[in-house]
Amino acid sequence: MAVLALFWGSGFLWIRIALQHGLTPVQITVLRAALGAAVLLLLACSARQRLPRGGALWRRLAVAAFFCNALPFLLTAYGERSVGSGTAGVLHATTPLWSLLIGLALGTARTTGTDRTTPLRLSGLLLGFAGVLLILAPWRESGGISTSGAIALLGAAASYAVAFAYMARALAGTGTAPLALSAAQLTAAAGLSAVALPAGGPLNPFSGFSGADPLGLAAVTVLGVACTGLTFHLNYRLIATEGPTSAATVGYLLPVVSTVLGALVLGERLTVRAVAGTAVVLAGVFLVKHRPKPRTVVPLLTD
């Protein structure tokens, strides 16, 4: 769990470094997906798992790749041009809140992979977004956070929620081994992202170089290999060995890891308001993901 949280949570740090050293959001998206796919393809090959066949399944994988990988990867990289890596991690943690909101909009929470809606979860939804408002502080003239960047990051979290809902309905029970299915999905994401390369625009103005420097390339390599490819693999292993509850717990550690690394490595400022907002967001997410234990009915002994 510690290794998974470190890899997953540090992804926001590596994105920020890659942006500062010459890579554009589109380039980061393509390289991240391609490197992650390469890792999973090697792991699937070593495990003798074959890629899925059939046009219908690949079309569903393409939809999942768009909402779960290509789009959120791009929005995250775009958002981090103006929002710190620590705050990006916190906004990313709002995915369960969006899942519940989408379920309410569709008339049932079950379509987003959550259980029935309860007053406790509705309270968590309101609490979580109150934490987001506390972090962004739209009432402050100099809140220090770009509105467009924050919207992009929240859009990435919402895209993950849409993807999880779709994947639960369209990809569950396909009979394809998990590693092979993940490798195929990231391969499709790399292909979809590559289509946008010509429209990627000029290199990031954060860097004075005409192209990406070695540090930027190293950052995106770690992002693709460790924070994308190996993270997928470790997450599946954790679910298999410790169960989904332990795997879900890692989600609470991501904002903590991203915030700490952003402060230590990049010198990002930690304010009391940001820390308080992070705590409120995590409390809201906890309430949304909380599943009460079923009551045990003890039969009465009668004569």
What does this structure look like?
With 303 residues, the chain is an all-alpha fold. Helices cover 71% and strands 0% of the residues. It has 11 helices and no strands. The protein has helices at 2-20, 25-46, 55-79, 85-92, 95-106, 119-136, 147-170, 178-194, 214-242, 244-265, 272-289. Residues 110-114 and 202-210 have low confidence and may be disordered.
Computed structural class: mainly alpha
**Mass-distribution shape:** globular
**What's the average pLDDT?**
83
Low-confidence stretches: 110-114, 202-210
**E-strand count:** 0
Report the sheet with the most strands, covering strand number, pairing sense and barrel closure. Answer: none
The quaternary organization reads as single chain
Helical content stands at: over 70%
What is the count of helical runs? 11
Q: What percent of residues are in strands? A: under 5%
Instruction: Write the element-wise H/E pattern from the N-terminal end onward.
Output: HHHHHHHHHHH
Rg result: 20 Å
Our measurement of the CA-to-CA distance between the termini, rounded to an integer number of angstroms, reads 53 Å
Concise description?
This protein is mostly helical.
Itemize the secondary structure elements and their pairings.
Layout: H1 2-20, H2 25-46, H3 55-79, H4 85-92, H5 95-106, H6 119-136, H7 147-170, H8 178-194, H9 214-242, H10 244-265, H11 272-289
Considering the chains and any ligands shown, give keywords for the structure.
globular; mainly alpha; 303 residues; single chain
